[in-house]
Every structure is written in C-alpha cells, then in structure tokens.
Amino acid sequence: MDLLASLHLDALPEQQTRTSRPSVAKALTNNPDIKLGFDACCTCAAPDVSVKCKGCGRVSYCSNKCRKEDANPPDDESQQLGHGSVVCALLRLCDNDEDVDEGSVGGDQKDDGAMEASRDRVRSEFESYPATLANVLMGGPAYQDVITHQSQGSGTLTVHIVGASAGVELWGDYQSNMFSDPDTDVYEAYAEALTDLVEMHNLEKIHLVFVGPDCPKKNVKQVKQITCYGGEGGGRKKGNKKSPCLLIETHKSNYDAAYLKNGPEFGSRSAGNCSPPPTANIVVFFNPGFTCSDYSWDGALSCIPAGVPFLVTTNTEMEAVADCQYLLVQNFIDALPQLVTDIINGDESGGDKQDDGEVQEEDCGIFFGENPFAGMRVRQSGNMANDVFVKNRWMIGGVRGEGLFGLKRKSLQKRQQMDSSPVKEKEDKKKKRKKLKGNTKKSNPALI
Asked: How far apart are CA 14 and CA 395, in angstroms?
C-alpha cells in the first residue's frame, strides 16, 4: 500500500489496543461488549470517557494521565503500540474519509489536497471488490482448471458472490461523486476489471450472481459488453462474432438449498430472475464474518459441493485465522495452511513462508495471505479504538474439500491396494500420523 509506505510502515498495525492491563482484562471478562476508547477509558477501562486524544479526537480516556500512558511506547516490540504516533496518524485520516464517504463535503469545504487523497482512498476501497475478484481468479492456481474447462465447454464462467450487500460489493450510484467518468457504474467497473480474464481464457460470458439478504430490494439483471483490445479471439469463440459480455444478477435472498432450488425468496421478481440461479463454478465471500455470532453460515457452506473453488476475504489477519479454523471445523477444508497453524501456535517464523507479502499456495491446497488488491482506506474498529483495518486485506482460497489430507487419503488407499506389505502399510500410517500431528489446532487466547 502506498499509504503505508508514506508512513514508513512495512505492515498495517491492526490490533494495537492494549488489553493486558489487569483492570482492562477484568472489565472485558465482566462485559465482553465493552468498547475500549469509546464507552470506556482506552487505558484502564473506567466508564469515564471525558478526555479525548488531542491529535485525532477518536480515542477517549478517563484522564490526561491515562491518555499520556496510552501514547507511551511499549516496553518491548511484542506489545501493542497503544495510541502512538503511527496509530494516531492513521486515525486522523478516518475523519476526512468518512466525510467523503457520507457525501458531507460540499462546495469549498475541505476542498484541498488532503480531501483529494481521501477521495482516492475511499474510491480504492470500492474498486477493491472488482479488482480482487478479477485478479485473484486470473492468477490463482486453484481457479485455472475450472476456468479452462468452462472456456473449452459452454464458454460461460458463473461466479456466486455470497452475502453481497447494497453499498458494499454493489455500491450503487455512489460512484457519481467518486469516479472521473460520471457514466461509470458498479456493473461497468466489474466488466472493466474482468476484461483481461475474458481475453486470457477466451470466454464468451462471465455470469456474476450477487446473493444476500442485504442485496438491493429490486432484483437486478443487467448485461454489459466487454471490449477486448488484444489477444487471439478477443474473448470470442472461433467462428462466433458475438462479443463477450458480463451478465450480472442480484438476488435478495439467503444462500441455502431452497434458494439454489427455487430462486430468490425476497425482493421484487419483476426483473424475471425468480428461477433458480445457474450452478456456480466458483463461490466468493467478501468479508463474511464466519465467526460472528450475528450470522449463521452453516447452511450456505453445506450447499457448496466438493471440488468447487472458493475465495474468502477478511479485514484483519485475526479474522482470517478465525475463518480458516471455522472452515476446518465445518469440514469445508481438509487442513489448515501451515502459516495459519504457525500463527495459532505462536510461531512467528511461519511468516518466512511469504516473500514480500506474496501469497503462496501451500501443500494443503489452500492459500492464505495478504491481498495485494485491497484498497488504501484505513478504518477504525468499532470495539477497540486503537485497532485499525482495511477491507479485503486478507484472503483465503482453494478448492472445497480437496485439501492435502483428502488427496493423501485417496493416494494412500491406492498404494495400499497395490502393495499389501505390512511393513509398507506401517510406514505409510506413521508418515500420515506425523503430518496430522503437525497440523493439530490449538487454542489461541487472542481469538477467543
């Protein structure tokens, strides 16, 4: 991120609210819903929030003493930064970004270089959805087989974006104030982002189905032509003069067996999309919050067949780790990526598996890492005032139910059928037990 480079940061300092102080730990135990820095002092958790940070005005304390203590550098590098200069600088950007987001900047108000930078950050967050979708599908090894298969077959790639919301993945008319081209809309943004994918794989059509209870009230069905500028065929099948296109549908509905069988359960059906959706070739979840108690994803995940590639984005590394654990418990994936296991076990050396933030697909067939196509807008957590995040900053992906252990079980069974030697069988089992032991999930207090 250019923003991090400008602040001389190698990585975004996500969880920086200090919670190890005894009074804070006790307050969180008694009331897990307490919001440090908002309705309780960010330093000691006292209910008095009469003092605010003088720099950003976004973190509250009970006294100047607590405010100064929170700004002091940590005792060692392993501790949270608290409300140091870096966190304060990031939070100062939030005011301008929120003004732009809410459209409250009018006339000459704050109309300077700072607000232009803010517009760029807010716009980049919206653009991160089509950018992530297009670039990860185009470059991710987990998706190439199914895309090639669809290209050589029907010519149509169908992607379900599950849990989609109006104003988020579907940002509506917001772009009229954000994009230099006033005619650009959310659907054209997706069409433009997916152009290279269509051209690279010679696809005739990409069908995006956005589904979720927070989708627009009126179900939408739109077709956007995709203009290809190079490449053999330009996204067209040989002998077919029809231009490639993007078909977008929005379905206000839960994603479950009933939806896949009967179509959307809510919203206007005047758009003609009351029939069941087409079978998904790839399933995408943007910031689903799998472990959030406000949502239940069990039914949605159970509807996705084994062998279907998936992509999940999250806002923070902690969320990404928790979501990986949830997918493992749900038998959606067969094993945790080694990097996730290292993080859970407190082995920081696991980060050496990534070079300069590069996302790598591990032996278990699941990739995990930072999303290079996330936006630049930094947001403040609503629960811990010194915690910050960037939407879609982390991602998990792979093929549903085709992880390392599923494949190894099949391979092991085949070898055992070919070689019934007791010694050989014993060696295979020993190797399997050793691998399983290395990926055992352990409790992580930070995730509880």
From this structure: 15
Cβ–Cβ under 8 Å, residues 395 and 372: no
DSSP-based helix, strand, coil % in the chain, nearest 5: 40, 15, 45
Tens-place pLDDT, residues 288-336: 999 988 888 999 999 999 999 999 999 999 999 999 999 999 999 988 9
Q: Identify the sign of the CA torsion 35, 39, 42, 47.
A: negative
pLDDT at 364: 65
**Residue 330 CB contacts under 8 Å (≥ 6 apart), including other chains:** 298, 301, 302
CB 133 within 8 A of CB 190: yes
Is residue 177 within 8 A of residue 103, CB to CB? The reply is yes
Residues 75, 81, 83, CA angle at the centre, nearest 5°? Answer: 120
pLDDT digit string, tens, across residues 65-108 = 999 999 988 776 667 789 988 899 999 999 889 988 877 655 44
8 Å CB contact between 324 and 365: no
Q: What does DSSP assign to residue 233?
A: T
Cβ neighbors of 203 (< 8 A, separation 6 or more) are 147, 150, 151, 155, 156, 157, 197, 235, 244
Q: Measured between alpha carbons, how far is 133 from 150 in angstroms, rounded to an integer?
A: 17
pLDDT digits (tens, 9 = 90+) for 26-80: 999 999 999 999 999 999 999 999 999 999 999 999 999 999 999 988 776 667 7
Bridge-based pairing of strands 245-252 and 205-212 is parallel
Q: Give Cα separations from 276 to 209, 252, 265, 421, 444 (angstroms).
A: 11, 13, 10, 51, 41
Beta carbons within 8 Å of 217's beta carbon, 6+ residues apart: 252, 267, 268
Q: At what angle do helices 141-152 and 113-139 cross, to 10 degrees?
A: 70
Q: What are phi and psi of 250, to 5 degrees?
A: -120, 135
Token pair in block for residue 151: 């290209």
CB 259 within 8 A of CB 265: yes
Q: What is the pTM of this model?
A: 0.81
**Residue matched to tokens 């989609």:** 164
Nearest to 385 by CA among 56, 74, 7: 56
Of 200, 199, 178, nearest to 189 by C-alpha is: 178
Task: Name the E strands within 113-196.
Answer: 156-162
The residue with tokens 């206007």 is 268
Whether the predicted pLDDT of 210 surpasses 70: yes
Tell me how far apart the alpha carbons of residues 10 and 155 are, in angstroms, rounded to a whole number. Answer: 42
